């Protein structure tokens, strides 16, 4: 599988883009005409740079508004094309993308289009150049890949083929199975883009909201299967117009883009039983082994966990690290970090084969995390998520044997808890990258989304979870000008009222809930008055849906982390999104008061 | 004219919002239920705070999903309403917004809806509360204000009326003239929102992209006229759901919101020949009197202007300020500033009546700029635009007599120039505020928009200009994570080639244009080879449209400002947008090289 990317996907100047593409491991690039025009480097310099970096110039693009025009207009296009053929020779490109006419077409006739594209191809042949004709979703007359192919077939030139772009085909809801009727060697190029489901005009959707494969709603696995079955043997190339990726760091975005292709190839290979591009099996997360809070001085967290009813299970025998536990919930307090502020630094996932998970992560280009391990200690492989949170893996069969490295702790406490969910946070510009990371590397699956008004603006969230729902990682997306939402961990217990009562008796500082909230609860749910007073007295929040009930409370925030305790009654599967605005307001208000 | 705003428009907590609304000069507020629920302050405290701040609680909102339901569901709604009536009494609100049913309606029958709304109104009457029923654009059965009014009429309760929202009516393209058939005293409330023309689903458009009046595409003047003609005498209230305004500084956004209502009232009064809300006539900009660059040491700018062919017209007799001129173009270099980096600090507009312009600006809440003026000097009133640029006014009849305060300059140079345009820059979150400022305070008119790919992302621009096109102020909108585009001034000359040649001979540092750009020009325009070599040799850029041609060049950037020289041939009215990506790339590349 050869990989490629259009330079238009990335920010910066052309030279920077090429360096980033090479560093990310792409085999080739589509050079955007405008990127070359804006560069001080000559086409020859760019060609030599690509050669040195090991990048093939797979295509030069775009050339617009050729076919379906009158003779005079076509003559101008031929002249324009000759000038671009010269530039292509200089830059070392032998394939030109020609988009279906949007602006100048006046003749809706396949024969005319075929004759003109044929003449263009003949002119290109003199330069050893091939032409890939693509139906834009908003082409004046040609907006369907099947019609583009009929025209190419009719023109019948060896150096004229089609370019297929997943966006232009899937955004219009065209059936991609027809691709298999095109001979593979006449598909000159393949461009891949995903996109979210948006109800807006095609052009805006395409120009601003495309995503890398695996981040949107398109069935790209099915799409790619059709293309490969047709016999296409060229590169998989990304062409993703996205306002965000045009702004974000070019090196990081290129790596992110490259991961999306690895993911897509693997997924397609798995789905079809093919070998090419196939990685080891994804390691489904079976459970959360631990969560870790890092900070220079975590004594407040020790106290907090004690107040919640966790038991101290000891100090690590070689590191400034402590372990607290309650049932299946294990919390590591790690003081071997440089940042003074306590934050959620890591979590561990139990999988069938931790080594396989790590190998797969490496193949997906996830940055490996190094942690010093002493002789006799269990070594857990780990990678860093885009927000810096470290993700560790251990074999489920090992039954968290690393916990034996902690010494001097007390006995297990009676509290039975598990980690209900881990809430991580992203700036809007890192969100799509995070979704891809969590699905491809951490093998989690996209679940529900929500949008919550907070005092700093709308907070969007995307839940990632294991298929069985045991592992849940809601990701919160901060508005562009807002601070990142604070990461937190929620523990699930059987009786949140009892836990709250005991914690209060031990002096735990709850997040105080506004009294108006309880008046609103009364209006919305008509609760039993005694129950409402219990909730009010303990600063508990409440939600209900068709399936069940949710009762939960929050602790104060300690630096950059807070904890939540939840009880799920019957089949409640949500996260109390209706209560999130109240929580966000309360936290901000306390923060302002200092 | 009473003014009001819904608290949902603004960021922050409820108390902050109320303070900001009062500071901006609003007479009242619509309190959003969720804002109260998230506040630690009791309803009584909020009522007292509003009283102290002089804010009327005009409405409490929203109450959803009442009408068109089965009896059991309606009974629940009545119970829910009773709880909210109590809260309303405590917070001092006597009007409740009821939105047409979206979620629970199963009965599409006006009689049922009227009976249920009537019963709700009767329950409300016991608390002295009135109900304003509003048709949401996406209501299940009721999505048209005319149907909402028919139902209200049928229910026939004195405390049941309609709420009209410009978004819900205009977004669906419903004819607002029918409003005049509703008795004015049955229109209980009026919500105003503008919106851009967007081709997307109504709900997303409404929830994320509303704008304050004057910033979008709706004819709010016409809309408001119908409402006032109907006899409506309540407040004009803003309800603008916008992702951006939810994030931006609450005080600034409230002031911005308030300005939009002043603008709308004035515009409506002018259009209809009414007195209420009418300000003095807008002072159309007749010309640009001067542009000013500020900085601690501007000697490089002196040299630059000399190289361009400007003449030094003297030093100000009482300030560290120098004047350069060429024809009608006057450039002030102001070293009486604290910031070391040279930036475009101000420009002066010639108007028929500078005092009237300043009075109008004050009525629109524009922040006044103070500048020390010595005896015998001409005093020019000024305000600050949202990006900090100062806008001065002087009477056209005064013929820039202030220039006489500069002494010791040389004779006028032969170069004849004028200011073609002034390019200012905004972060995306300040853009709508800037559009409103430029149209309401500076009396400029929105003209063309463009979208230009730059190395930091897409740069959007909105041209503001006088009706005759003599004054042009393109505003560039920076992507969220990008640095602000550098502000610049463009001078128009008759022969840009001659100016460029002379400037080059005097040692001016041009922005070097990539050679690839000229190869692309050759492909696009097939220019005469000699002309192409002239352009290439002088680093000139070129554009052509149906009307004419545009030839221009840029200087190096000095701190935070650069200059442009343009020649417009025949009827070319643009700004060379096709060349902007090349310019942005070149500037960034030079910046990186340092």
From TrEMBL, chains A, B:
Pfam families: AP_endonuc_2, Glyoxalase, Glyoxalase_5
UniProt cofactor(s): a divalent metal cation
Coiled-coil boundaries: none
Catalytic activity: 3-dehydroshikimate = 3,4-dihydroxybenzoate + H2O
Enzyme Commission number(s) from the entry: 4.2.1.118
Entry binding sites for a divalent metal cation: 134, 165, 191, 239
Keywords: Carbohydrate metabolism, Lyase, Metal-binding
Pathway: Aromatic compound metabolism; 3,4-dihydroxybenzoate biosynthesis
Annotated positions binding Mg(2+): 421, 488, 564
Domain VOC span(s) in chain numbering: 418-568
Family to which the UniProt record says this protein belongs: Belongs to the bacterial two-domain DSD family.
Function: Catalyzes the conversion of 3-dehydroshikimate to protocatechuate (3,4-dihydroxybenzoate), a common intermediate of quinate and shikimate degradation pathways.
Name of the protein described by the UniProt record: 3-dehydroshikimate dehydratase
Organism the protein comes from: Microbacterium marinilacus
């Amino acid at each position: 599988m050869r990989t490629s990317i259009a330079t238009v996907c990335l920010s910066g100047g052309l030279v920077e883009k090429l360096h980033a593409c090479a560093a990310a491991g792409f085999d080739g690039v589509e050079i955007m005409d405008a990127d070359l025009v804006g560069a001080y480097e000559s086409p020859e310099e760019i060609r030599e740079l690509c050669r040195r970096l090991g990048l093939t110039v797979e295509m030069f693009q775009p050339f617009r508004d050729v076919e379906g025009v009158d003779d005079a207009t076509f003559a101008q296009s031929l002249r324009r094309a000759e000038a671009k053929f010269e530039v292509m020779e200089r830059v070392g490109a032998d394939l030109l993308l020609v988009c279906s006419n949007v602006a100048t077409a006046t003749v809706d006739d396949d024969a005319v289009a075929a004759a003109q594209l044929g003449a263009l191809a003949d002119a290109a042949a003199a330069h050893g150049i091939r032409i890939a004709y693509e139906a834009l979703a908003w082409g004046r007359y040609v907006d369907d890949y099947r019609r583009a192919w009929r025209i190419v077939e009719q023109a019948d030139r060896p150096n004229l083929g089609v370019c297929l772009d997943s966006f232009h085909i899937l955004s219009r809801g065209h059936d991609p199975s027809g691709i298999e009727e095109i001979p593979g060697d006449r598909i000159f190029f393949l461009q891949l883009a995903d996109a979210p489901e948006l109800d807006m005009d095609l052009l805006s959707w395409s120009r601003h909201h495309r995503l890398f494969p695996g981040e949107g709603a398109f069935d790209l696995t099915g799409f790619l299967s059709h293309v490969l079955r047709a016999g296409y043997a060229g590169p998989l190339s990304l062409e993703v117009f996205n306002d965000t990726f045009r702004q974000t760091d070019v090196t990081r975005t290129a790596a992110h883009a490259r991961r999306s292709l690895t993911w897509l190839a693997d997924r397609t290979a798995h789905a079809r039983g093919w070998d090419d591009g196939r990685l080891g099996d994804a390691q489904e997360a079976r459970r959360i082994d631990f969560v870790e809070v890092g900070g220079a001085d975590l004594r407040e967290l020790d106290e907090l966990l004690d107040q919640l009813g966790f038991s101290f299970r000891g100090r690590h025998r070689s590191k400034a690290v402590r372990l607290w536990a309650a049932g299946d919930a294990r919390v590591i307090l790690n003081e071997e970090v440089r940042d003074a502020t306590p934050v959620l630094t890591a979590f561990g996932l139990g999988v069938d084969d931790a080594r396989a998970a790590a190998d797969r992560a490496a193949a997906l280009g996830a940055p490996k995390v190094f942690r010093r391990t002493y002789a006799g200690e269990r070594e857990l492989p780990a990678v860093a998520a885009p927000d810096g949170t470290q993700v560790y893996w251990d074999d489920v069969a090992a039954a968290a044997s690393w916990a034996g490295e902690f010494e001097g702790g007390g006995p297990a406490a009676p509290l039975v808890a598990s980690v209900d969910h881990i809430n991580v946070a992203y700036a809007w510009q890192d969100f799509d990258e995070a979704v891809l990371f969590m699905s491809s590397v951490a093998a989690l699956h996209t679940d529900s989304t929500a949008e919550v008004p907070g005092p700093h603006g709308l907070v969007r969230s995307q839940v990632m979870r294991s298929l069985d729902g045991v592992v849940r990682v809601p990701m919160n997306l901060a508005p562009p000008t807002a601070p990142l939402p604070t990461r937190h961990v929620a523990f699930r217990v059987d009786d949140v009222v009892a836990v709250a009562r005991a914690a209060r008796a031990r002096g735990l500082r709850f997040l105080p809930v506004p009294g108006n909230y309880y008046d609103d609860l009364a209006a919305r749910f008509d609760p039993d008055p005694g129950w409402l007073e219990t909730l009010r007295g303990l600063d508990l929040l409440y939600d209900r849906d068709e399936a069940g009930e949710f009762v939960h409370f929050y602790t104060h925030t300690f630096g950059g982390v807070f904890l939540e305790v939840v009880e799920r009654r019957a089949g409640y599967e949500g996260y109390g999104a209706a209560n999130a605005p109240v929580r966000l307001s309360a936290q901000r208000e306390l923060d302002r008061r200092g």
